[in-house]
Structure formats: structure tokens, C-alpha cells
């Protein structure tokens, strides 16, 4: 079999796999490499989420603090001051709090991502990225209109009214992000994770 035929077979397999995954995602099945903090995979169905009661209260605390006026920075300070391990730390160690922790610290990006995540009101939103090549593990972002969204796929941790209030607060605070000035290296420095250009900003409490 020639290299050309092998590449053709690879493309056919990739297309079939994408169709299969989209079909199952549209049913609300979960395809993630790790669980969102507050949830774990159902032991009887690995494509379903169930509440992880060991850390569900952390999720509730974050939302409660946010909708009552505490910004993401102060929420992070609270979590780290009280020795809570970050989501990645919890996944790796199964430890919720450790007074002697030297890593696995929380950050504002993690908190903000949680505040915007519909998983906490029982919805599944997938297909946010598509695989360009499974061979080199290259992915690209998908337009929001093409997301696969299924409501009520699992038990919520956060009440929908609280979640919606958090979204309103988040959007209002995002509007207050103001670019301070153009700087010499503008357009030359990019984030290694998201590939977006860096910019100097003044940000109100988020």
C-alpha cells in the first residue's frame, strides 16, 4: 500500500470518527480527558457526569462569593489562603485541602472559566474545538454557532438564577477592561497556550 493510499485511509477514518463523536455528543454524552471540578464520571456510564460531593461545595462557594460582590482575584486569595488545591491538584492527588501545599494554586483564569461553564447548571456544551489532524494532535476553535449543546444531561450544582446573575456580573465587569496604551512590543508577543497577542490592560475587579 502506497503512502498516498495510507493518507486517504487516514482522512476517511478521521471523518468517520468525527461523525461518530458528534452523533454521541448530540445525545449529551461526555467526551473529555478530565472532569470539571465538582463532577466525576459515573461508574456505570463513563459518558455521564455525577456530582463529586468532596468538592461540590467549593463550586458553590465560588459562585456565592462572586454573585455577592467578590471579584475573581479575591476568590483566588480565599481559596489559596484556605489551602484548597486547584482542580488539577485535586485530580492528581484526590486531596481537597492541604496546609502544607507547595503547588497546585488557584488562579483567576480557572475561576472565571468555572463561572462561565454551563456544566454547573446541568448542561453539556461540546464541539468547541475540532481536530485538524489526529496524527499531529492539531486542533482549531469552532464557531460558537456550531457548538453542540444539550440541556439537562446531569444534576446541576448551581441554581440557574445564580448562574445567570454571575453571567450578567461577568459581562459588566468585562466591559470595564480598558487598554491603557500601545507599547513597543505590541503584536510581537503571543501567549504560548492560546496564541493570542499580549496586550497591556488596566482591569477592574473581575
Descriptive terms for the model:
206 residues; alpha+beta; two-stranded antiparallel sheet
List the helices and strands and how they pair.
Layout: H1 3-25, E1 39-42, E2 45-51, H2 56-67, H3 72-81, H4 87-93, H5 108-115, E3 124-126, E4 129-133, E5 138-141, E6 148-150, H6 160-174, E7 178-179, E8 201-202
Antiparallel strand pairs: 1-2, 3-6, 4-5, 7-8
What's the helical proportion of residues? 25-40%
Widest β-sheet, arrangement of strands:
1-2
* Largest β-sheet summary: 2 strands, antiparallel
Model regions low in confidence, pLDDT < 50 over at least 5 residues: none
Tell me the fraction of residues in β-strands, as a range: 5-15%
Separation, N- and C-terminal Cα atoms: 57 Å
Average pLDDT over all residues: 78
Topology as a string of helices (H) and strands (E): HEEHHHHEEEEHEE
Alpha-beta content class = alpha+beta
Radius of gyration: 20 Å
Overall geometric form: globular
Total E-strand runs: 8
Number of helices: 6
Give a verbal description of the structure:
By secondary structure, this protein is an alpha+beta fold. Helices cover about 35% and strands about 15% of the residues. The protein has 6 helices and 8 strands; from the N terminus they run αββααααββββαββ. The protein has helices at about 5-25, 55-65, 70-80, 85-95, 110-115, 160-175, and strands at about 40, 45-50, 125, 130-135, 140, 150, 180, 200. A two-stranded antiparallel ribbon has the order 1-2. A two-stranded antiparallel sheet has the order 3-6. Strands 4-5 form a two-stranded antiparallel sheet. Strand 1 and strand 2 form a beta hairpin. Helix 2 (about 55-65) packs across helix 6 and helix 3 packs across helix 5. The model has no long low-confidence stretch (mean pLDDT about 80).
Amino acid at each position: 500500500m502506497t503512502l498516498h493510499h495510507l493518507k486517504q485511509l487516514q482522512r476517511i477514518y478521521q471523518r468517520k470518527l468525527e461523525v461518530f463523536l458528534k452523533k454521541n455528543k448530540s445525545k449529551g454524552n461526555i467526551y473529555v480527558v478530565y472532569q470539571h471540578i465538582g463532577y466525576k464520571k459515573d461508574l456505570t456510564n463513563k459518558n455521564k457526569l455525577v456530582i463529586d460531593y468532596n468538592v461540590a461545595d467549593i463550586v458553590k462557594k465560588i459562585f456565592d462569593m462572586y454573585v455577592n460582590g467578590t471579584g475573581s482575584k479575591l476568590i483566588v486569595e480565599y481559596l489559596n489562603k484556605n489551602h484548597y488545591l486547584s482542580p488539577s491538584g485535586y485530580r492528581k492527588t484526590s486531596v481537597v485541602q492541604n496546609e502544607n501545599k507547595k503547588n497546585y494554586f488557584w488562579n483567576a483564569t480557572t475561576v472565571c472559566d468555572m463561572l462561565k461553564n454551563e456544566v454547573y447548571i446541568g448542561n453539556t456544551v461540546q464541539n468547541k474545538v475540532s481536530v485538524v489532524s489526529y496524527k499531529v494532535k492539531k486542533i482549531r476553535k469552532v464557531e460558537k454557532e456550531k457548538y453542540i449543546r444539550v440541556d439537562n444531561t446531569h444534576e446541576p450544582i448551581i441554581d440557574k438564577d445564580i448562574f445567570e446573575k454571575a453571567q450578567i456580573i461577568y459581562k459588566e465587569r468585562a466591559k470595564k477592561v480598558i487598554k491603557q496604551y500601545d507599547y513597543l512590543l505590541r503584536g510581537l508577543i503571543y501567549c504560548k497556550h492560546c496564541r493570542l497577542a499580549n496586550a497591556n490592560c488596566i482591569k477592574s475587579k473581575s
